[in-house]
Amino acid sequence: MSIGRNEPCWCGSGKKFKKCHMGKEAPPAPELLDLSHSSYVSRWQIDTSSFDKQSCYTWMSKKLCKSKPKLLLDVGCGDGTSLLRLYETIGDDQLKIISLEENPECIRAASKKLDDAGVSVEVVERASIDFGADDSHTYTYYPIPSFSEASVTLIQSDVLGDPFLEDFLLMQGKFDAVTAWLIGTHPENQKNTSVLHLGAKDSATYRLWVQNRMYDLADKILKTTGIIQVVDRVEYPSKEEYLETIKESHIDQAKETRLEFVEIDYIGYEPPQSPHGTPMVFHLGSETTNRNVTRQCMVSTISKKL
């Protein structure tokens, strides 16, 4: 396996390869994928705990309350904290959440957190994995079975390469809301053939592809006036021009759909001090002088189905 000295280590520690496992043999591809899955959850829990203490997930959730969703589609369950706060904040016993997640370790962590909190949860693991000679891997998904009336259903799914997903969602009836919060992934997902096919070679490109796919799905499954909310971690906007740039990017993502941009807002937060979390990667372009990269925030954008 070829990996650059300054790239993230294959073990998922978050350290650069040269400061971690450089010179040591990587495990076989199946073991490496399992390690990548589990280490991602461990690192993300550091971040999500910090975000939750600062009420970030509650802030995101409150943006949805006025739409009073009954059926909601989420992508990327993390360790379940975001789903728990979403369910608690909306506060409707009739709310049904379907959450899509590629990482089975995330699904297990989320299932436990929700169950421990007394939220009914259903888990649908439905994929086999084949490994190629080049250490790439391919998910083979099976049809999504019918499931119980749990408040939250966690479905193993790669939104970029699940052939059964769209038809299944269309069969559920019209959704009131779609959420794509803080999209990220583990290092080995770059060897997922559905990701390789799209050329998503870094986290920023992967996040953009997932968001594009969620806009496309939202256009098809949302009811009229239904909303999609996208939340990203970004540099703190020291000038209004930066917010305008973010706004324009989401307008561009929605332009081929029946979705119309309606709102942008942000909240500052303190990143966790632990070096073992999932640090935000700054993408400093020509507008660096317009940004204050010493502070970070979460930006929420909402678009509505016309």
SSE layout and pairing:
Blueprint: H1 29-53, H2 56-65, E1 71-75, H3 81-90, E2 96-101, H4 104-116, E3 121-124, E4 127-131, E5 137-141, E6 152-156, H5 165-171, E7 175-181, H6 193-198, H7 203-221, E8 222-236, H8 240-254, E9 259-269, E10 292-305
Parallel strand pairs: 1-2, 1-7, 2-6, 3-6, 7-8
Antiparallel strand pairs: 4-5, 8-10, 9-10
State the main characteristics.
eight-stranded mixed β-sheet; 8 helices; two-stranded antiparallel ribbon; 25% strand; alpha/beta; 306 residues
- Lateral strand order in the biggest sheet: 3-6-2-1-7-8-10-9
**H and E string:** HHEHEHEEEEHEHHEHEE
- The assigned structural class equals alpha/beta
* Oligomerization status of the protein chains: single chain
What's the alpha carbon Rg, rounded to whole Å?
19 Å
Helix amount: 25-40%
Strand content: 25-35%
How is the biggest beta sheet arranged?
8 strands, mixed
Alpha-carbon distance between the termini? 48 Å
**Total E-strand runs:** 10
The backbone outline, from C-alpha atoms, is globular
Counted by DSSP, the helix tally is 8
What is the typical, i.e. mean, pLDDT? 90
Point out poorly predicted stretches.
Answer: 283-289
How does this model look, in words?
It is a single chain. The chain is α/β, with parallel strands linked by helices and 306 residues long. Helices cover 34% and strands 25% of the residues. It has an eight-stranded mixed beta sheet with strand order 3-6-2-1-7-8-10-9, sandwiched between helices. Strands 4-5 form a two-stranded antiparallel sheet. About 2% of the residues have low confidence.
